[in-house]
Write a structure and sequence with these properties.
The protein is an alpha+beta fold. It has one domain. It has one helix and nine strands, in the order H-E-E-E-E-E-E-E-E-E. Strand 8 and strand 9 form a beta hairpin. It is rod-shaped. The relative contact order is 0.17.
Amino acid sequence: MMQLNKKGVTLVELLIYLGLASIMLVILSELFVSILNESVETQNYSAVQTDGRYILARLRYSINNADSITTPLNLGETSNTLELDGGKYRFYLADNKFYLYSRDDVGSPSYLMSNLDTKITDLVFSQQGNVGGKPVVSIAFTASSGEVGTTQHETQTFVGAGGLR
């Protein structure tokens, strides 16, 4: 009897291997894409949280250490700009970015206080307090990051207050 040396792969075996490899590739690709999407969502959430908290902390610090509030001047008055110490410091929005203008510094520059990828909108300062008492400024703004209409878009409204000491 003659023995045949069968080395190689049949067409059916090759198709089964290719099918299994294709299924594994699709599953791994989907997993990779979902991990990337989660990463972007996490980065946007982190950017919004970091900028929002930093802006609130910086505003509270500046208000607490100011000698006077120039704008908004009167109780109940609202403004989208906050001026302290006779205009020496001014916080404002331009192109959905949050800025601090400081007349103390050489050349009186404006400093970008928010991340380039974070949009700040709906900024409102309102003077609160009691007649004859120390003024308190309430602060409200919305921070957002990511493309609107996608699952990666993150938006949060921040509210706080600071008063003269």
